């Protein structure tokens, strides 16, 4: 015979272990906040933009096909920007004590909405260094692409700048705590139902019928004892006995 669980039983299970659920959720959020604010290193982001356009000699014959060609070249430029031939020179100019692979992982390159504009984004724990890396990558690429592909069609559209009070892009403590709240709540509710499922103790008449399949003939009700009333009754009897003896 299959057992069914009603919504009332589900709510009763949650109500029964509500303190445990709240405690686990609060602990999860607290741990997330503790790690986010004290252990995770803030990462800052800076971006610059370069424009892929026609060379000055070809400006008079500029047409739509030239734009399409430049857009197709952007995919090639994206690879070149993050290649060792560019990043090694960036490391040398800035005196960075990190590998080319490590520097590569800090940089992301992509076209701005299928346009001729290419965005170069750098993330680093030092906001000032993130700005320097972004601008240096753009300038080195603009200079080196002339000899690499024998073209002169790249110009810097906007340079990265350091704001007065830069804000880190990660970690995001608020988002981390929100995720911890959801995960902690789900884990706590799941644990509550697991404990209820593993609890085979018999507490009510329904439990006897459910687990043992025995019909309950009768039950002994429980009464709340008024201790003060009992004490007064005992004292009264003692006083009566004392009077009889006297």
From TrEMBL:
Protein name stated in the entry: Capsular biosynthesis protein
One MF term in the entry's GO annotations: protein tyrosine kinase activity
InterPro entries per record: Bact_polysacc_biosynth/exp, GNVR, LPS_length_determ_N
Subcellular location: Cell membrane
Keywords, alphabetical: Cell membrane, Membrane, Transmembrane, Transmembrane helix
Organism: Anaerobacillus alkalidiazotrophicus
Similarity comment: family membership: Belongs to the CpsC/CapA family.
Domain of life from the UniProt record: Bacteria
Bilayer topology: Multi-pass membrane protein
Gene Ontology terms: cellular component: plasma membrane
Claim: Membrane is one of the keywords in the record: yes
PANTHER family, per the entry: FERRIC ENTEROBACTIN TRANSPORT PROTEIN FEPE, TYROSINE-PROTEIN KINASE
Every Polysaccharide chain length determinant N-terminal domain range: 3-94
Domain Tyrosine-protein kinase G-rich intervals: 140-194
Entry's transmembrane regions: 18-40, 175-198
Major subcellular location class: membrane
């Amino acid at each position: 015979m299959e057992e069914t669980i009603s919504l009332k039983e589900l709510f009763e299970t949650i109500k029964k272990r509500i303190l445990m659920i709240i405690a686990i959720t609060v602990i999860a959020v607290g741990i997330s906040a503790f790690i986010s604010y004290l252990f995770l290193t803030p990462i800052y982001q800076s971006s610059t933009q370069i424009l892929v356009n026609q060379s000055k000699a070809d400006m008079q014959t500029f047409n739509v096909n030239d734009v399409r060609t430049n857009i197709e070249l952007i995919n090639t430029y994206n690879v070149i920007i993050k290649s060792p031939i560019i990043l090694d020179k960036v490391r040398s100019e800035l005196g960075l004590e990190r590998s080319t692979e490590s520097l590569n992982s800090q940089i992301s390159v992509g076209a701005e909405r299928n346009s001729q504009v290419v965005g170069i984004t750098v993330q680093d724990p030092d906001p000032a260094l993130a700005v320097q890396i972004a601008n240096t990558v753009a300038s080195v690429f603009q200079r080196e692409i002339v000899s690499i592909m024998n073209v002169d069609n790249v110009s810097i559209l906007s340079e990265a700048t350091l704001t007065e009070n830069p804000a880190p892009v990660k970690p995001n403590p608020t988002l981390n705590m929100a995720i911890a709240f959801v995960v902690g709540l789900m884990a706590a509710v799941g644990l509550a139902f697991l404990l209820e499922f593993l609890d085979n103790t018999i507490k009510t008449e329904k439990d006897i019928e459910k687990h043992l399949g025995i019909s309950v003939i009768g039950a002994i009700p429980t009464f709340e004892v008024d201790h003060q009333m009992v004490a007064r009754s005992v004292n009264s009897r003692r006083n009566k006995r004392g009077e009889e003896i006297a």
